[in-house]
Amino acid sequence: MIQSAAIQPNFSTQNTANKYALRCLLIATLVICCWAACLSYLISIDISSTPIIQLLPLILVQTFLYTGLFITAHDAMHGVVFPKNMKINNFVGGLAVGLYALFSYKKLLKTHWQHHQNPATELDPDFHNGKQTSFLGWYFQFMKKYWSWWRLLGLISIFYLASYVVHLPERNLTLFWILPSILSSVQLFYFGTFLPHKEPIGGYKNIHNAQSNPLPIFWSFITCYHFGYHQEHHEYPNVPWWMLPGVYQRQGAALKN
Fold first, then answer.
1. Which of 24, 98, 231, 240 is the most exposed place for a label (fewest CB within 10 A)?
2. Distance CA 157, CA 202 (A)
3. How do residues 213-246 score in pLDDT, each as one tens digit?
4. 242 closest CA partner among 255, 252, 232, 253
5. How far apart are CA 196 and CA 191, in angstroms?
6. Judging by beta carbons within 10 Å of its beta carbon (0-12, 13-18, 19+), is residue 13 exposed, middle or buried?
7. How large is the C-alpha radius of gyration of the chain?
8. Which of these, 226, 232, 241, lies nearest to 27 by C-alpha position?
9. How many domains does the chain have?
10. How many C-beta neighbours within 10 Å does residue 106 have?
11. Which structural domain, as residue segments, surrounds residue 47?
12. How many beta carbons lie within 10 A of that of residue 147, not counting itself?
């Protein structure tokens, strides 16, 4: 499904295409490594006497990196983590969602393409049910669809193994492993589903039933890895997250000409 859905950009030479593919893989690898390095450091430091308010910046940094894990997996679902080799591409995607919260890459791949084929409709698994249209109502309905008791059991098992076998501090695990993953789900939902796909006044204005939230480049990156350029993502699903601002700018320039 990935191969047929992801149409890669055209390149003048094979060397250019190879460089692009390696750059995509390097960025995905960098995100995963930053998440792993930061988590390894944070769960090993002594925070027993540190007020939680002072730990808030560290929690937010780890939340941001958790969001990057999922965005990396999302790019893999579109075949753009390593377009030269789908086995490597899918491995990175599966690794990213596994590290994120033991998600099944295959199941997420299926529902994500249902979303792209039927955005903001009753056939969209990520859309609200027509009743729970508020942020919180839609969020809890959204999360319920991806709930799994087996996955929860797996996460609990990892927590207690890390705590009682590896002897990692429970407070560190709670603040830097559990809490950031939950906060990042809110971040991803708000910037990647709620804002882009909630129906605007006057109704949807394009076939993707999506709108963009074109923040300045820095804040676009910080809020959700440029996922606010959501209409552009639906129009060009083969474009990785770090190229979306360029797509938006080129489209704006074309409209002015």
1. 98
2. 48
3. 888 999 999 999 999 999 999 999 999 999 999 9
4. 232
5. 7
6. exposed
7. 19
8. 241
9. 1
10. 12
11. 2-256
12. 8
Dist CA 41 CA 186 (whole Å):
24
Alpha-helical regions (H) of the chain: 2-5, 14-42, 52-77, 86-101, 105-117, 135-145, 149-164, 170-173, 179-189, 195-197, 217-224, 230-235, 244-256
pLDDT of residue 9: 61
Asked if the model's pLDDT at residue 209 lies above 80, the reply is yes
The pLDDT value recorded for residue 3 is 37
- Alpha carbon 78 to chain centroid, angstroms: 12
Q: How far apart are CA 30 and CA 19, in angstroms?
A: 16
3-state secondary structure of 13: coil
Which tokens in the block code for residue 43?
A: 């769960």
| Rounded distance between C-alpha atoms, residue 144 and residue 148, angstroms | 9
Contacts of 193 (CB under 8 A, 6+ apart): 126, 138, 142
Mean predicted confidence (pLDDT) in 105-130:
93
**Residue recorded with tokens 């899918």:** 90
Dihedral over Cα of 174, 177, 182, 186: its sign: positive
pLDDT bucket at 15, cuts 50 / 70 / 90: confident
For residues 25 and 88, is the Cβ–Cβ distance under 8 A? yes
Nearest to 70 by CA among 154, 187, 176, 152: 187
Q: What is the Cα–Cα distance from 189 to 89, expressed in whole angstroms?
A: 24
Q: Is the pLDDT at 8 greater than 80, yes or no?
A: no
